[in-house]
Amino acid sequence: MPLWKGEHGGEARLMLTTTGPAPTEVRRWTLEPGEEYPSHPHQADVVETVSVTAGRMTLVVDGTEYPVGAGQTAAFRGDVTHTYRGAGDDTCHLIMTVHLPPGPTTTT
User: Fold this and answer.
1) Ranges for the Cupin type-2 domain (predicted)?
2) Which of 40, 84, 90, 106 has the smallest set of CB atoms within 10 Å of its CB?
3) Cα atoms in the Cβ-side hemisphere of radius 13 Å centred on 16
């Protein structure tokens, strides 16, 4: 079941979630040209990476646009406003990782 479905057929799917001291989520995305997903800021210390495997996208982080093409990876703080937008004429395929801050430690 997709986490998100775009108006033009794009989607995001959760592929993996890890637990432990450095929890991580891995998501597979497709974005059609011009399709976008505006994301709300996450909690402090979240870091996201997007690795484009085919096509192109525009990553907007805190109002600044960054082009990311096939074979490129971008990393950014997830606690600011950010948007993923399909760019070019072809479908953009990407893998996103969301690195969550460590949870509270426990002592015995």
Assistant:
1) 28-97
2) 106
3) 9
